[in-house]
Amino acid sequence: MSKVNTQMIDEERAKFLRYLTKAGRRVSHGREIVFDQVMRAHGHFTAEELARGCLEKKLKVSRPTVYRVLYDLLEAGVIRETAFGDKHRHFEHVYDEKPHHHAQCIRCHRFIEFPDRKEDEVYHPYLEKQGFKILGHEMHFYGVCRKCQDKEGL
Amino acid sequence: MSKVNTQMIDEERAKFLRYLTKAGRRVSHGREIVFDQVMRAHGHFTAEELARGCLEKKLKVSRPTVYRVLYDLLEAGVIRETAFGDKHRHFEHVYDEKPHHHAQCIRCHRFIEFPDRKEDEVYHPYLEKQGFKILGHEMHFYGVCRKCQDKEGL
DNA sequence: TTCCTAAATGATACACTATCTCATATGTCA
DNA sequence: TGACATATGAGATAGTGTATCATTTAGGAA
Question: Distance between CA A103 and CA A93 in Å, rounded?
Answer without folding.
Answer: 18
